[in-house]
Structures are given as C-alpha cells and as structure tokens.
UniProtKB/TrEMBL annotation:
One of its GO terms (biological process) is pantothenate biosynthetic process. This is 3-methyl-2-oxobutanoate hydroxymethyltransferase. Pathway: Cofactor biosynthesis; (R)-pantothenate biosynthesis; (R)-pantoate from 3-methyl-2-oxobutanoate: step 1/2. 3-methyl-2-oxobutanoate binds at residues 45-46, 84, 113. Mg(2+) binds at residues 45, 84, 115. Binds 1 Mg(2+) ion per subunit. The active site is at residue 183. GO terms for cellular component: cytoplasm.
Amino acid sequence: RKPVTVPSLHVMKAAGQRIVMLTAYDTSFAWHLENAGVDIALVGDSLGMVVQGHSSTLPVTLDQMVYHTSAVARGLSATMLVADLPFMADRDTAHAMAAAARLVGEAGAAMVKIEGAAPHVLEIIDVLTARAIPVCAHLGLTPQSVHKFGGFRIQGRDEAAADRILAEALAVQAAGAALLVLEGVPTGLGERVTGALQIPVIGIGAGPHCDGQVLVIHDMLGITPGKRPKFSKDFLAGNGSVSAAIGAYAADVRSGAFPGPEHCFS
Ligand code: KIV
Ligand code: NA
C-alpha cells in the first residue's frame, strides 16, 4: 500500500473515492487500522473521554497527546497520522506552533487538527501551513466548545447557523487547511459544505455525502460505556473480531453503505 499523503487525499476527493478515518490511541489499535487499510488514523482528544473517563475533552494535556501520538505512530506505516491540538493550545499562535512542533516533530504526526474558525484559529492555520505543517480544520459540533454550546448539541440546524458553518468552512479552506472534519450537522449541510469545498470533508454525524467518514474507535467497537451515539454503529456486532469490524467499517465507508439514514440528522 502506498503511503496516504495530503496530495493523495485530494486526488481521492477528485476521483470520488471515499476516505476512511478512525481514531486510535495506542500502538495495537494503530496496527489494526494499518492492516485494515484505513486511510487516516486520528489521535483525537476524545481520548479524554473514552480512555481517561472525563466527561469532556477539555482536561487532555499536550503531554498526553504527545504520548498517545507517539504510541500510535509506532503502529503505522502507510496510514496517515493526524493529531488533535488539545484545548487551549490555540491560546495564541506561539503556543499553537510549539504544540504542533511537538506533535509532528517529536511524536510523528503528519497533520494537526484544530477546532473552529475564529480569527485566531484562521491565523494559526495560516502560520502552521506556511511552516509546512498541514492542518485539518474541525467545524460543526466542536467538542472543545461544549460549555459554549451547553452540551454536545447538533449544530447548523437553522438556516442562519448553517450559512455560518458554510462560511467558516470556506474561511478555513482559504486560510490553508488541507482537510476538514465536519461533526454533528444535518445531512443537507454536510452535502452543501462538501460540494462547496476543494479540500476533502470528513464527516462524523454529518451525513453520507461527505468525502469520507470518521468515528471514535471505542464507539464503533461497542466499547464506549453507556449509550452509543446515534451517528455511530457497532461494527464488532456480527463481525466477530476487531480486525473484521474495522475492515467492515472501511468497506462500508468506501461503498457508501455507512452512514445509513438511521445514523444521520435531518
Ligand atoms: O477527538 C476526536 O476523536 C475527534 C473526532 C471525533 C473527529 O475530534
Ligand atoms: Na477531537
């Protein structure tokens, strides 16, 4: 398998080949993603919830992100590695650059992900891109804004909010983002954003029209305690092994079978 790169992801979008992305937090899971041919492994700050037991992603530190990203990097070869900038790593451009330098230079990520499209975030996207650090933007239900939203709520439900998210998507692209994760928005908005952008749009709870899909691995293996989020699916049920479950997820994303209508918001 050829290594997945920023240019190859853009070729996939142009060719209509869906991109498969999944979170990983350690070497063993990374190895399973690699063997299943997953295109992108994301070390998400969701690890604060599914690994550390916090009720949000806010307590995750940069040291913890570096630790988990290093572990995942050792399990990968062709799969691209993306790491989240943790909460408040965007407090100013200098902190964001220092954080990205550790995640890429020390831990081995090929790209960093940052939430939102506020002016300071656009500046960080621009500055990192100028330093040849590709950036994945993240819009819609951005979990680091949980207190602003008043919970993990679907975003972009009314027309004004949807227009705002589309404008943010165009702004992060113009700032230089190489990729966009779009989370927790109605299917119609997922389709609009994907159609409007040149860069690939990876959806999670954003409908079937995105250029690719991402899930939290604990959700799609049925490991996460409590109720499974509506936009996820337990791929371990009926597939018998972790490798078969990840393989089924990759196949269903590529064929368009996942997400189905029951995983989407209207
Ligand atoms: O932290 C994470 O796992 C994420 C994905 C849900 C996109 O940001
Ligand atoms: Na995240």
